[in-house]
Design goal:
With 627 residues, this protein is an alpha+beta fold. The protein is 54% helix and 11% strand. Belongs to the acyl-CoA oxidase family.
Amino acid sequence: MPADEIRRVLAGPTDDAHHRLLAALLSEPRFDRPIGATVADRHRSTYARLVELTARLPAEAGELADPSLLATIAEWTAVSDPSLCIATLIHYGLCIGSLVELGKGNDHARQTRVALAQGRKVGAFMITEIGGGNSQLAARTEARFDPGSRAFVLHTPDDGALKFTNVGVNDLDKIGIVCARLIVADRDCGVFAFVVELSTSRGPLPGVALSAPAEIPLVPFDYGLAGFDHVRLPFDAWLADGASIDAEGRFHDPLGTPDERLVRTLTAPENVWAMGAVALAAVSRTSAAQALRYSVRRSSMARVAPEVSLLRYSTQQRGLFRALATSFVMTCFANEAAREWSDAVRHRAGPDRTAATFMMWAPWSSTNRKLALVKALTAWAAEAVAAECRLRCGVAGDLTVNRYLEYQGLGHVFNDAGGNNFLILLDTARTLASGVAAVPDDDAPTHDAPLPEAAGAAREALRAREHRLVAALARDVAARSAQGLDSLDVWNPLLPAARDAADAYGLNLAIRAATSAIAAVQDERARAILQDLVALFVLDQTDRHAAWLMSEALIDAGRYRALDGATARLCERLLPDADALIDAFGHPHAVIRSPITDPAQDYAASLARTLKLRARDGRPESVSVGR
């Protein structure tokens, strides 16, 4: 069956058993979200479900030992409830990830990890400070070593150094992984992570100040502010990661520079980029699948053709099949990155950190260039796909019970979560211009099958665009640097070009990941469907960049005009396979719980049941057509 083979491709490096486990868990009534709950109650519900989930997952999740399990947790929590997804990414990817990677040989770190893994405590990760942009490069929270007691004193010097993190619900047993500048004998030793007890059921602990939530409506979570007033920490609260302070108070770090230490301290966000990219790709797929299902089943009363399915309209076909194509390409990109991350996690091998010696805009690309870029592009794609699908569903798309706004919100939040996407692209562009990040060799042999509808030629034009943008950026940077200009004057006029170059580079990496995934597909019908989706994505991107491509003579007016007809033919070919695509790309209604995906009832009946339509006497109302 084509749907089965397509589903296998979409699963990437994850295990079927993990998908079955998460689907079964998140289908249970205890993971329902109450409709009409206050914001505060929603925050508490998110944590209650996080605790329930952690208590029932295999032990490997709490040891960061099974990347397939972690990626699957991210995918299924994202489509079930984006707020729960954010909570799991922080809890597992950042907090447990930091403890596992930076706390080797530290029994206090091990005990904290076990408490988090068992759901006895929940985690908050603290790097961002509110006082300035790009604060990760210049953290001002201090952990000062006291040689007399061999303890640390954690302190927030002013409001600008307050941490922004998930502390708005501050009467839970909550642990913070706090990134602070280590001071030993008045020497700045770089930014390290520290384990800090933040609160209990009675509220914040002495010396810890936690604010009320600062709301982010699209994906509600208890983001707030945290500060520390000379909080004393035991020596083993320090996640030293091989650094040491001897009996005479002398500090030693095997890493050579503060920048290298910062990159190492921020190793855990790699988990969030990989898990988050999988999650973002999943909400893109489910957005497209449920909009496609709705369009197949929903009829239009327009007098041009009464009772005709919405999907008969060419505009609906183009919008939704393009969204489906984008979700497929970005899923392949996320899966490729997740596979590389999985190998690194299993072997505890670090990625290439050749860019760590110099950080310009932010530390993220120095930590892992590809994962950071994948996170950025899948976030933008999820936001765009969910928005398009929401619009294609009319009023139904605006209802939060149908999830589009939450899925769009997850993409929106990931513009900044795990690092600002624009800054990630700028740092990617800098490495491209310097030659550190190699542009793929288009002359290298591949096993890609040719794309239909002249999409092969369009793909070559997109490749040429990438090469020309990167080459032009490198020339301009070199020329301006040769004039003796400082970094700001070199780069400031080039920032739009830098973003375009990095975006083009990432776009072609994503297309290459998709064509490579298709090459392994055995079922001929499934392979043809997926080739049509990639072709549609390539033509869509060519259309979006047509002005630049024509200005560079990479396409002419005739080829541009032909894009419309080619797009129409691809949509017509995909139309008979709509049900297979819905089946392969979607997630079960029992997990999503949106009326728009309900296979057992029509949309109107499912919505009425979800919203608990009742008569005046309080009994469930049954509304018939004839009333």
